[in-house]
Amino acid sequence: MSQKRKNALGRGLGALLEDSKAVNFSKAGIDAEPLNTPMGINEIAVDQIEVNPFQPRTDFDPVALQELADSIKVQGIIQPITLREVEAGRFQIISGERRYQAAQLAGLKHITSYIRQANDQQMLEMALIENIQREDLNAIEIALCYQRLVAECGLKQEELGSRIGKNRTTVNNYMRLLKLPPEVQVAVRDRKISMGHARAIINIDNIDLQLSIFKKIIAEDLSVRKVEQLVRELANGKGAEGKAKSLDPERAYQIKRIQSRLSSHFGTKVAIASDDKDKGFIKIPFVSAEDFNRIMDILDL
To answer: Where is the ParB-like N-terminal domain (predicted)?
Structure first.
């Protein structure tokens, strides 16, 4: 990538808007006069605008969209959308598709817009970066945006981090989520588990065991800290609980589940160790003679 191109792509959205320029609307055949302000703001007919084919986001909350449309009816378009001219009299959205859709719902015939020049790659990069800045994106949507910026825009992770104001570690943590099984990614996307849960799971190399831990999170509503502890025990193989890592993943999960039930039943942390030949032991610790007698009473011995 040339230095000139890097400079063009790397100035950020603020520079993008400041550098917007009005186009020759008489040549474009537009039926509304541009406002000719220093910022290059123009009123563009809604039916002359088409959506961005590189838009990484396809789902828009219909309730939130209607709320925005209601606001636009009262307040108008507060933040202009950004367009590029693709041919005479035809424009394509660079950023602001949600505002565009809401404006249509509100019945607007024209929409306040910035106009600038951009090629397809710049379109993709600007659309992705704008989406990343949104607060309502889930971790998987952000990870997919990062992946596309690296794969399709040729950005290195260090370069990407500087563009979006994140360090390389943060970018890498998001992109690693895309290595998780699809079932887990969907759960992150739908906010059934958090990014913290997912980051803990990904430290386990075995996919079957990842899914077993995921199911345990859902079934027992485990906290992130609890999952991190579980993963450490499985990874480090410490104590009797660590023995479970050599078992079949589903068997290990079942032993963990039984172990949890026994711990609740006896009121103390019960440990179960078992090998693939069904040999092992159950350990019930006690801290005093009274505690020992309490456990014996539970056992009815």
So the answer is: 42-132
Sign of CA dihedral 233, 238, 240, 245: positive
What is the CA 40 to chain-centroid distance, rounded? 34
Give the span between the Cα atoms of 123 and 176, in whole angstroms: 25
Rounded to whole angstroms, the Cα distance separating 256 from 212 reads 10
- CA–CA distance, 137 with 184 (Å, rounded to integer): 17
Phi/psi at 110 (5° precision)? -130, 155
Read out DSSP for 257-277?
A: HHHHHHHHHHTS--EEEE-TT
Catalytic residue positions? 97
**Spatial separation of the C-alpha atoms in residues 278 and 218, rounded to whole Å:** 28
Query: Which domains does the chain carry?
Result: 20-115 (3.90.1530.30)
**The tokens of 96 are what?**
């602001």
Q: How far apart are CA 218 and CA 232, in angstroms?
A: 19
**Two tokens, residue 265:** 């039943």
Amino acid (1-letter code) at residue 178: L
Q: Running along the chain, 301 residues long, what does each successive block of 10 average in pLDDT?
A: 42 40 36 39 89 68 87 88 85 86 92 81 70 72 82 74 78 89 91 92 86 90 91 63 51 80 84 74 82 83 69
**Residue reference for tokens 């015939």:** 109
Widest distance between CA atoms in the chain: 96
Place of tokens 């005093």: 288
Answer yes or no: pTM beyond 0.85: no
Rounded to 10°, the helix 157-164/168-176 angle is: 110
How do beta strands 90-95 and 49-50 pair? Answer: parallel
